[in-house]
Amino acid sequence: VQLVESGGALVQPGGSLRLSCAASGFTFSRYAMSWYRQAPGKEREVVAVISSRDGSTDYAASVKGRFTISRDNAKNMMYLQMNTLAPEDTAVYYCKVRFGGYDYWGQGTQVTVSS
């Protein structure tokens, strides 16, 4: 199982970013996928989850209405569209899959929101 995130950057408050997660080593379409983030000095927290089949989604209260999770099962890709970014969104963002009873994580991508 391999997960590779990309798309992190330095962005000004109010800006937007789109993160990507490329998945391999498992049948992507069969598994729910998640985005997490970890800010300096804080615990890792779930940001958004997307189901495997019907694409139903769920979001942390802090990002609801601003972030959109999506997936492309044909490309084995997951995305996180982040709008109206705020300094408190600064964190390393990770994608995760639970496969075979284990959690697999990518290496993370840094998102910094600052003027």
Description:
With 115 residues, this protein is an all-beta fold. The protein contains no helices and eleven strands. It has strands at 2-6, 10-11, 17-24, 33-38, 45-50, 57-59, 67-72, 77-82, 91-99, 102-105, 109-113. Strands 2, 4, 5, 6, 9, 10 and 11 form a seven-stranded mixed beta sheet that branches. The chain has a four-stranded antiparallel beta sheet with strand order 1-3-8-7, with no helix packed on it. It is globular. The chain starts with a strand and ends with a strand. The model has no long low-confidence stretch (mean pLDDT 97).
Number of strands: 11
Low-confidence stretches: none
Work out the strand percent: over 45%
Which structural category fits the helices and strands? mainly beta
The largest pleated sheet is described as:
7 strands, mixed
Radius of gyration: 13 Å
Mean pLDDT: 97
The dominant shape is: globular
SSE blueprint and pairings:
Blueprint: E1 2-6, E2 10-11, E3 17-24, E4 33-38, E5 45-50, E6 57-59, E7 67-72, E8 77-82, E9 91-99, E10 102-105, E11 109-113
Parallel strand pairs: 2-11
Antiparallel strand pairs: 1-3, 3-8, 4-5, 4-9, 5-6, 7-8, 9-10, 9-11
Based on the model shown, name its key terms.
single chain; four-stranded antiparallel beta sheet; mainly beta; 115 residues; seven-stranded mixed beta sheet; 11 strands
Nutshell version of this structure?
This protein has 115 residues and is an all-beta fold. The protein has strands at residues 2-6, 10-11, 17-24, 33-38, 45-50, 57-59, 67-72, 77-82, 91-99, 102-105, 109-113.
